[in-house]
Amino acid sequence: MSPRRAHLEDPERAPRRGHRRAHEQAPVERRTQAERTAETTAKLLDATAACLADLGYSRTSTTEVCRRAGVSRGAMLHHFPSKAVLVAAACEHIFQTGVDEFRAVIEAVPAGTDQIDVAIDTLWELFQGATFAAWFELITAGRTDADLRPHVALVANRMRDTTAATWNELFDPPPAADVATAELYEAAPLLIFAVLEGLAMTRMTGVPGAEADAEKVLDQVKGAANALRG
Fold it and tell me: What SS3 string covers the chain?
């Protein structure tokens, strides 16, 4: 028997035409334009945030962002016409991601557990990460960069509104509160964020004892917040 005939008659060696044809005819899942745009935007924003945290604002370039994101410069300019717009959008993107993570953590707290303590501990972790480092770079740069400043102000305003809305959504106001207590409740998220920002900046300087000082202050903040809620 010739090798060719043996090959054709051996079921183990015969080509699986049906299998190959089925594979070749399998439908290809195609992404929509909106999905491709969302993916490209997310890559650019994540790469920008990483650059800000790793390199600082002055050393962050659109060329480096594109390299890390694996996106062409033309594609970047199509979505973000300038570095200022790009970095501001990146910080807002990361902030919103942090809000989503924060909300998920609080909503997962078992009944009977003190949500305020968990909330402050969760926020403090976020303030010690790359998110705050990137935001701090923008605040510092925006002080003297006229092109960047309005974008930073816009993001800061949205952060303030989102923070207040999230606080009101997760934590009910104290019952039968007087006017002074109601005003304090309304200002509480801004007060907590201001304290955390100050502690985070002190920690970034490397001051000896910053961690221990932060723990002491946070204990007081937790006590005050719990007292406010009654």
Answer: CCHHHHHHHCCCCCCCHHHHHHHHCCCCCCCCHHHHHHHHHHHHHHHHHHHHHHHCCCCCCHHHHHHHHCCCHHHHHHHCCCHHHHHHHHHHHHHHHHHHHHHHHHHCCCCCCCHHHHHHHHHHHHHCCHHHHHHHHHHHHHCCCCCCHHHHHHHHHHHHHHHHHHHHHHCCCCCCCCHHHHHHHHHHHHHHHHHHHHHHHHHHHCCCCHHHHHHHHHHHHHHHHHHHCC
